[in-house]
Write a structure and sequence with these properties.
The chain has one domain. 82% of the residues lie in helices and 0% in strands. Helix 1 runs antiparallel to helix 4.
């Protein structure tokens, strides 16, 4: 087994993409709170709930990014699921010629890049090292 003590650059780039997505979601959460202040109570409650959901997803993405940096195997699935969901939202955002194309592209491009990176061999090996080390320890013991 090759030495995987040093994080591949593609894993670091993947983590940066995930962190940027988390910051963007947190920004949308804050924007949601700001825009809903001063509305009627029903809209306020819904807006605050929406902002809390977005903040929760941002927290999830920060943890997934940290997992990628640390080489945790669970983070691969978390990143893949989020990127697939984000691509779905990007396609839903772009609804023909009238859709906000820049917003759809801003969601689609990083998600596609993250999916490409997460399936590259160096990243796969980096994220599988924890499991491989555990298997090697079990074989030795």
């Amino acid at each position: 087994m090759e030495d995987m003590s040093e994080r591949p650059r593609s894993a670091a780039i993947l983590a940066v993409i995930v962190f940027v997505e988390a910051v963007a979601l947190l920004g949308v959460a804050i924007w949601s709170v700001v825009t809903v202040i001063g509305t009627e109570a029903r809209e306020l409650t819904a807006g605050l709930f929406w902002a809390a959901c977005l903040a929760g997803v941002a927290f999830f993405l920060v943890q997934a990014g940290r997992g990628v940096l640390d080489g945790r195997s669970w983070s691969r699935a978390a990143v893949v699921v989020w990127q697939v969901l984000q691509i779905g939202v990007a396609f839903g955002t772009y609804n023909g010629a009238e859709g906000p194309v820049p917003l759809a592209l801003a969601m689609f491009v990083p998600a596609l890049a993250a999916l490409v990176l997460v399936f590259r061999k160096p990243v796969r090996d980096w994220l599988a090292r924890e499991r491989l080390e555990r298997l090697a320890d079990e074989a030795d013991g």
